[in-house]
Design goal:
Order of helices and strands: HHHHHHH
Structural class: mainly alpha
Number of domains: 1
Number of strands: 0
Length: 177
């Protein structure tokens, strides 16, 4: 029981802290976009790098926020059905559908990891004229999938415990907005 609680606490803490850090990626992304707007519209001299870098930062921002979104219950459900169920029925439905999440994230993790390893080995760059390195962005997807898998497993543990005990045995203990 202590091992399970430790895993849940660690996973929740890790994803909450990771999301807090990732949330600050919005600052450089906005700065880059403002810089590009000023160069483009006031000086008629757009940069070669701002568009790609803002896409890189935004891509990392989006994929790395998935695990925290799952932790905070922010992903979309089919509420027309799920919302009508009792808390135990919701937990049972989440248990049944967690297999799809494990399958999808597992395959995505494995494939993205292979692509990322290859990208690092060949020193992949983009195909633009500027040619920035691409492998740091590629690395964000397997990291995000791993964190998301950890959080899906934590939710599965909580749902199974809720179905068995009919109470929230392992509540989320990190501060959520």
């Amino acid at each position: 029981m202590k091992v399970i609680e430790s895993y849940l606490r660690f996973t929740d803490w890790l994803n909450a802290k990771f999301a807090w850090i990732v949330a600050f990626l919005i600052v450089p992304m906005l700065a880059i976009m403002v810089w590009e707007i000023v160069l483009r519209y006031f000086f008629n001299s757009p940069s070669q790098w701002a568009y790609e870098i803002s896409l890189f930062v935004f891509g990392a921002y989006i994929v790395l926020g998935g695990a925290y979104t799952h932790l905070s219950g922010g992903h979309v459900n089919v509420d027309i059905i799920w919302g009508q169920l009792s808390p135990r029925g919701r937990a049972l439905t989440d248990i049944l559908t967690s297999g799809f999440a494990f399958l999808y994230l597992g395959v995505l993790f494995w494939v993205s990891l292979q692509i990322t390893i290859n990208s690092w080995q060949i020193g992949e760059t983009t195909m633009s004229h500027w040619k920035p390195i691409y492998y740091p962005l590629r690395t964000t997807l397997p990291v995000a999938c791993f964190l998301f898998l950890m959080q899906v497993f934590a939710k599965l543990i909580r749902d199974v415990a809720f179905v068995i005990k009919r109470e929230d045995v392992f509540p989320v203990k990190v501060a959520l907005p």
